[in-house]
TrEMBL record:
Function, as annotated: Metalloprotease that acts as a negative regulator of the Wnt signaling pathway by mediating the cleavage of the N-terminal residues of a subset of Wnt proteins. Following cleavage, Wnt proteins become oxidized and form large disulfide-bond oligomers, leading to their inactivation.
Cofactor(s) essential for the protein: Co(2+); Mn(2+)
EC number: 3.4.-.-
Entry membrane topology: Single-pass type I membrane protein
Keyword Cell inner membrane: no
Name of this protein: Metalloprotease TIKI
Organism lineage: Eukaryota, Metazoa, Chordata, Craniata, Vertebrata
Keywords: Cell membrane, Glycoprotein, Hydrolase, Membrane, Metal-binding, Metalloprotease, Protease, Signal, Transmembrane, Transmembrane helix, Wnt signaling pathway
Cited Pfam families: TraB_PrgY_gumN (PF01963)
Organism: Buceros rhinoceros silvestris
Entry's localization field: Cell membrane; Membrane
Gene Ontology terms, MF aspect: metal ion binding; metalloendopeptidase activity; Wnt-protein binding
Amino acid sequence: QQGELNSFLWTIRRDPPAYLFGTIHVPYTRVWDFIPDNSKAAFHASSSVYFELDLTDPYTISGLASCQMLPHGENLQDVLPRELYRRLKRHLDYVKLMLPHWMTPDQRGKGLYADYLFNAIAGNWERKRPVWVMLMVNSLTETDIRSRGVPVLDLYLAQEAERMKKTTGAVERVEEQCHPLNGLNFSQV
């Protein structure tokens, strides 16, 4: 029941009210039916919407991509223990082999090719920092592959906000996201 759904919406009582809504980085279709009507109404009523990052900005996307890379000249093979690197490579070979079987007919109908999808997700993985490779591997499951092409909740809301001509922005810069993750030592990762 809609009335029984738990909300991640906080209201800041002022005139007009302001809201803080907690999102999750999963395809919006997985969670949309569980977002309470009051949260959707607050989004629609708002004239300005600010996100963690501006995922509609190409500079944000390129900044996220570049921050994931190891320093120039370094390779993942140089920083991971040999056996872990071999296991990772075998796993990624397995994912690449399975990807065509994991894709949906709808994805194929939209002209999405398995090689393209693999490269979009895992391309240049040998140059990425271990923490980003770990996050990438966690998203290389059959369930996640089947939902590729569906925007994550944050991006969906940003696209909707732009479509509705709302003012949009971000509360963080790419560096504020990257530096803490890149600052983790190997044992933490």
